[in-house]
Amino acid sequence: MLNRRSLLAGLALSAVLGPRTMAEQPYPSRTVKIVIPFPPGTPSTFVIRALADRLSEKFKQPFIIENRAGGAGGTLGAAAVAAAET
Q: What is the per-residue pLDDT across 19-34, written as a single tens digit (0 to 9) for each?
């Protein structure tokens, strides 16, 4: 069972180690892929592409847009995200 002393020790350890590990690795550290479960040319695609351009400028990393239309309710897009590497 978690007691007060172990909880406070864990919080203190994360406060000490957390900022140090965050400073070493800026996020995102590689290309980001955005999966859109709609066909190209829809209004949501235009909005997401504009957002991806701004994110690329801000984070200095490429944001790739991938349309995965099909399936009932975007299941192909959801499956692509579920199978993606982390």
A: 555 556 677 788 999 9
Which is nearest to 45 in space by CA: 53, 36, 56, 54? Answer: 36
**Does residue 3 surpass a pLDDT of 60?**
yes
Decide: 67 and 38 in contact? Cβ < 8 Å.
Answer: yes
Cα–Cα distances (Å) from 52 to 20, 26, 34, in that order, read 28, 18, 8
Which residue from 30, 74, 29, 66 is spatially nearest to 48, judged by alpha carbons?
66
User: Are 52 and 65 a contacting pair, CB within 8 Å?
Assistant: yes
Tokens of 85: 């590497």
Question: What does the alpha-carbon distance between residue 83 and residue 24 come to, in Å, rounded to a whole number?
Answer: 28
